Amino acid sequence: MSLLLTPGTKDDLTREVADLCEQNLYACYQCGKCSATCPLSFAMGILPHQVLRLLQLGHGERLVASQAPWVCVGCMSCAALCPKGLDLSRIMEALRTVRMRRLESPLRTTQRDGKWLATLPQSAVVAAMRKVSR
Amino acid sequence: MSDRNGGKPVITGVGTGPDTSASPSDSTAGEAAVYGYFPGCELRTRSTALDSSARQACRALRVELREMKDWTCCGGLAPQVRDDYAGLLAPTRVLVEARAQGYEELVTLCAYCFNTLKRAHFMLEHNADARRHVTAFLELGELRPARVLHLLEVLRDRVGIERIEQAVNSPLHGLKVAPYYGCLLLRPAQEIGLDDPEDPSVLEELLGALGCDVTAFQAKSDCCGSYHIVTDPESVARCADTVLDAVAEAEAAVVVTSCPVCQFNLDWRGSLAGNGRTPVVYFTQLLALALGEPIEQLGFDESALAALALLPAPRSSDERSQEER
Lengths: 134, 325
Description:
The complex is a heterodimer of chains A (about 130) and B (about 325). Chain A has about 130 residues and is mainly α. Chain A is about 55% helix and about 0% strand. Chain A is built from ten helices and no strands. The radius of gyration of chain A is 15 Å and the shape is globular. The relative contact order of chain A is 0.16. Helix content of chain B is about 45%, strand content about 10%. In chain B, helix 11 links the parallel strand 7 and strand 8. Chain B has about 325 residues and is of the alpha/beta class. At the A-B interface, helix 1, helix 7, helix 8 and helix 10 of A face helix 9, helix 10 and helix 11 of B.
């Protein structure tokens, strides 16, 4: 990931995310264990440790427009390994929440095929509605 | 606690306050230990085998799962941002209603229900703002939620693995199993507290007591892809493949899980692979089977029945007593 640092980046969004997820985003020192263990890293686009770095540098808007928070399914494997005790699934949910509270569309939606949906576990359907729709 | 709990609870523990009616578990008295039970939607629809086999196994172990009346949705998954109080309403309603019905503790089986209810209980206990908002919204005078237990905790900590081992009359010798936990049963560890979040052991202990040959299974706490089966099955396929590859490496005959979504995702992916499909069963099914319940009543699918048919015929108790364990 290349990142052009420009003066005047705003950290309001970083503060909003930190407040929502109740995490110290500056605790991360980029060890990368979260990205190494993430079972969905192949689909993230922006990897979990990069999500934290972007927030630290005030580039949260890029995340609000990205797939990464919607790909995170909250398995908390990263949280179990983080040496600083950060829980990225909370950070990802905070980023989803920011987007949805702006009334922008979720970046993942449920499948449209009713026949397929009818075969799925009801708990997964309810959870998906809860996490990727508003 | 009200009379509905049968006057013989085994309820102790810490959390929302002292339980004045608690008495020690007395397995020899012949009365079943009674727990409030929350099956949840999934156990009423697709995963009826998890529900029925759990009840059968518990009956054999003198544990009564008494279904709470008029239960409602657990909420699906717990909210993970500070001020999503609305996300706490559904699980709180369940916990408060269970307590009002006289259940100090509520047992669940579905990993989603367990994780959601347990995390909601944690938030209500540790977040004064959340407690205040939820109490006001639900128009409660006082917020008294039931505590949450997974059936695995009841089996390990209340019944005891040793007592289960003694109760086994059809041991599953020769059945090579891969215990699979997934995520929601274990994490976040500081709120769930059921077992080690990376290297859990409760399923190994239980399955070992049933006589199974428990494999060292590397992917046991990996993610199956969870609810992305609803949004992005391709991603689930990749996650499930990681788990199923580890199953194949361990040469297990069956995967054992407690979570209906893990069960679905692994089984769905395995069924696409065609030959070499490894059945994915619930721990309650194997528990009930080892406790002598008839195999045809335990809801095994065809692939599981085929794997179990390879088991050696049950031996007589004389033979078993001569066996060196």
